[in-house]
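Project outcomes to date are best conveyed with an example. Our students and postdoctoral researchers have been running inverse folding experiments weekly, and each run begins with a structure described purely in tokens. The record below, which covers 362 residues, was selected by the lab manager from last quarter's runs and is presented without edits.
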């Protein structure tokens, strides 16, 4: 199968893409895969590591407010459609798959205009700006939350598949805590604010780190590469707290985690659901339509997670919440129990079947 995959900007788009690619390679080992991403975001560094051909396009996202930079963005958008058409003609794919992020828009649009089959995957409960624009250019739309259906007019295109990152998480090998300087016998609390980290949350959490002193559990705080050096230099951590800038293949650590503190990105949530990790969500309030809050609420309403809004994250509230969950076995076990059966199993299989059906229609 000749496949073009496009998307990126954050791990929330990149890792579902990798999960889909892995499934295609598993089912059809001789497949040719080309990944189209941005010229300056994290996918340009991550994707080639997986032996996937990479083609960058120079693209920028739209500003939400009136801005002269949007004129430049429009120019690059039109230019990206032109370049994408050339790449697609040369590669001649059986299907073009978009996983979100602004880079997806020109590629899927170009593919559809050239007569190729197209599939987009939406990770969040509320469709992103690019995927909303691409509805008319997609042959099928795979969604991660059943509640997303109401945002799409053409219901015949919609397939509830879940997020394939959950499948990949189950296949990951559990990390040996010694690799991170952690103790095997102690419970682990993993704090991570997405693949890029969060300046505001980091500022609040670093003030709380000394409060974890003398706890009977350990804390692993993933700061994000941009913030690591400053935090390392200016924060004195208790012995039971470790800080790291970034962890490749985070699911290996998640498999050894007893409690997680996390943003509510859809891909991370799918991993949390698959691995059944009790979690305190701190949704990012800076995303389109506040979709992370709505993502997290989907689990909170089912008694499968807790939620602390960023504006409420002060004093020792987070530390007290962590203590309460880990010390209350009934509450902890209830969270784990309520995580069972949530989400879609075998998401990768469902997405592959859509891909196969589309390519056989040609």
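After processing, the design step wrote out the following sequence:
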């Amino acid at each position: 199968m000749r496949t073009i995959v496009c998307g990126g900007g954050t791990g929330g788009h990149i890792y579902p893409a990798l999960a889909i690619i892995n499934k295609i390679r598993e089912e059809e080992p001789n497949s040719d895969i080309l990944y189209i991403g941005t010229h300056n975001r994290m996918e340009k560094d991550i994707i080639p590591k997986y032996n996937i051909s990479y083609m960058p396009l120079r693209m920028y996202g739209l500003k939400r407010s009136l801005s002269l930079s949007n004129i430049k963005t429009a120019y690059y958008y039109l230019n990206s459609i032109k370049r994408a058409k050339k790449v697609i003609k040369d590669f001649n794919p059986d299907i073009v798959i978009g996983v979100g992020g602004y880079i997806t828009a020109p590629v899927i649009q170009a593919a559809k205009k050239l007569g190729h089959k197209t599939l987009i995957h939406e990770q969040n409960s509320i469709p992103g700006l690019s995927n909303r624009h691409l509805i008319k250019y997609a042959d099928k739309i795979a969604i991660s939350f059943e509640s997303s259906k109401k945002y799409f007019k053409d219901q015949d295109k919609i397939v509830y598949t879940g997020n394939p990152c959950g499948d990949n998480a189950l296949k990951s090998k559990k990390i040996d805590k010694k690799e991170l300087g952690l103790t095997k016998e102690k419970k682990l609390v993993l704090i991570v604010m997405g693949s890029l980290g969060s300046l505001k949350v980091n500022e609040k959490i670093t003030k709380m780190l000394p409060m974890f002193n003398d706890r009977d559990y350990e804390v692993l705080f993933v700061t994000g590469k941009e913030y690591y050096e400053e935090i390392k230099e200016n924060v004195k951590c208790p012995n039971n707290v470790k800080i790291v800038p970034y962890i490749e293949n985070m699911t290996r650590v998640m498999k050894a985690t007893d409690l997680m503190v996390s943003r509510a990105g859809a891909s991370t949530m799918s991993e949390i659901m698959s691995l059944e990790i009790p979690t305190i969500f701190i949704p990012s309030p800076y995303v389109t339509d506040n979709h992370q809050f709505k993502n997290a609420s989907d689990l909170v309403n089912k008694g499968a997670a807790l939620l602390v809004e960023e504006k409420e994250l002060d004093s020792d509230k987070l530390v007290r919440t962590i203590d309460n969950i880990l010390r209350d076995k009934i509450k902890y076990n209830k969270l784990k129990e309520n995580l069972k059966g949530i989400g879609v199993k075998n998401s990768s299989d469902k997405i592959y079947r859509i891909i196969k059906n589309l390519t056989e229609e040609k």
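The chain has 14 helices and 13 strands. The chain has two domains: 2-163+344-360, 170-339. The training component of this project remains on track.
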